[in-house]
Amino acid sequence: TIMFAAGAGVRWTARILGLTPGAALVAALVYQLSPFLLAYISRTSLLLLPWAALGWIVGLTIRAGVASAATTDAQRWRDRLSRWRDPAAIALVVATIGAVNATAVALIIPAPLLWLVHAAWQRSVTWRQATATALRIGALSFVVSLWWIGMLVVQSRHGAPVLDFSETLEDVSRNS
Length: 176
Known about the structure:
74% of the residues lie in helices and 0% in strands. It has ten helices and no strands.
């Protein structure tokens, strides 16, 4: 299911970017069957959730950026909700995958930001629109992540140093 979600998200994003159905399918299969997942596919497959969500998050970011680039007053009024709809959908995806591992979520953050920078650089959107889109996405994603961020803060201040026991230098470097 996780592999299917990853492939479907990449296929959907590829179609948004204008790839043909065949090219989008190839992109999805290459991403879905990448060697990255081999280390996580068994007992730690939950760590693959951010990987599976990446295509969806980038596709929604593209749609959010395009929605903020409406040019006429009528389009701006009609798309006012659209400017928040896709960032809200991203926040729901982040809420779904976020509490698994903060580092895994941090590793996917650059992808939507890089697309916004690319779109602004290519003048598909203005820098102001890209910044506004990033702020909407960031604010909503932060709000839906507060529950697990709060738990991490409490754990770091008052909990046992779990990583000192579970991930010692010997354990982490043994296989490499």
